[in-house]
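Margin note: ligand = adenosine-5'-tetraphosphate.
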Amino acid sequence: MSDATFTPRVFSGIQPSGGLTLGNYLGAMKRFVDMQDADRFECIYCLVDLHAITVWQDPAALTRNTRELCAGFIAAGIDPEKSILFNQSQVPEHAQLGWVFNCVARMGWMGRMTQWKDKAGKNAEAASLGLFAYPALMAADILAYHATHVPVGEDQKQHLELTRDIAAKFNHDYGVDFFPLTEPVIEGAATRVMNLQDGTKKMSKSDPSDRTRINMTDDADTIARKIRKAKTDPEPLPDSVAGLEDRPEARNLVNIWAGLADLGVEDVVAQNAGKMFGYFKQDLADLAVAKLAPISTEMSRLMQEPDEIDRILSRGSDRAREIAAPILRQTFDIMGVVRA
Ligand code: AQP
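Resulting structure:
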C-alpha cells in the first residue's frame, strides 16, 4: 500500500465510440457531475478517443461523436471552467505513459480481462493489438494525473484492479512510492444499466440494435416508446427487492428509475409494489423524459457551435498537460531515461 500523500483527484473517461447512452449517463456522467459539485476533488474528465480507435471508427463519425460527447458532458452539468475536460489524443503523455505500462503489465494479466474476451470474441487473432493493450492505456490515463479516485460503472472494475496492479508493480520494480493505488468509485443503483431487450446484457452504445438502448440524443417520443417496448415479464412489481431476483428486465427498469430519481431501489419498489408493468413503464417514461429531454435539448444547442466545443477541448488539454507532463518527466527520471 502506498504511504505517499496524493492530492484528492478524480479522473474518468468515456469513449466517443457512438452516441452517449443512458448507461453512460447513469453509470458515469451523472456521478462525474456529483463529484465535481461536491468540491472535494480536482476533477479531470476525458473523451478517450485513443480507446475508441481500438475498434474501427469512421473518421467523420469520430469527429461528430467527439463533439457530441463534449456537448453531453456540458449539458449534463460538467463545468469546463471547474473541471478539466479534454480529448485524450491531444495530451501525448497518455500514449507515452501507456507505452511504459505496456512494458510493466504482463501478457497473462491482459489476457484475463473479460472486456477483451467479450470484445475480441472468438476471433481474437483478428482483433487489434490496441484492444488487447487497452487496460494499460487506461492505467496511464489515470496515473498520468496521480488520480486517487475513479468513478466508473461496474463493467470497469476489473480494469481498475489492473491499474492498481500496474501501479504497484512499477513502484515495486523501481523501489519507489510514486504512483497511487487508485480507488474505484462504483456507487448508486445504476452502476450496470442493462439492454432494454435483454436484461442479461449491458446497455451499450455500439450494440447494432437501437431499440436496446436510450441515447442521450433521443427525443421525448423515442425515449417513451423505447421504455414502453422494453422487455419485461408478466408479473406485477414485487413488494420487496428480493422479489426482483431472477427477473433481470424488471430489475433493470427499477434500477433505471432509482438512478434517474436519486432514490434507493427499495424506495422505488415500495412506491410501485403491485403495479403492472404497463403502468410502471408509463410512469418511468415520464420520469425519463423529464430528466433527459433538457439534456438532449442543450446538447443540440451546443452542437450548433462546434468551434466553441473545440475551444473548450483545447483549453482543457492545455490544463491537463500542465499536470501530466511533470508526472511523465518524473516517471522517466525514475526509470533512468536520459532527458537530453
Ligand atoms: N450499461 C452501463 N451501465 C452503467 N455504466 C456504464 N458505462 C458504460 N455502459 C454502462 C460506464 O460508462 C463509462 C464510459 O464507458 P465507455 O464509453 O468508455 O465504454 P464502455 O464501458 O465499453 O461503454 P459502451 O457503451 O459499452 O461502449 P462501447 O459499446 O463502445 O464498448 C464507464 O465508466 C462505464 O463503466
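The beta strands are 9-14, 42-47, 84-87, 149-151, 183-185, 194-195, 198-202.
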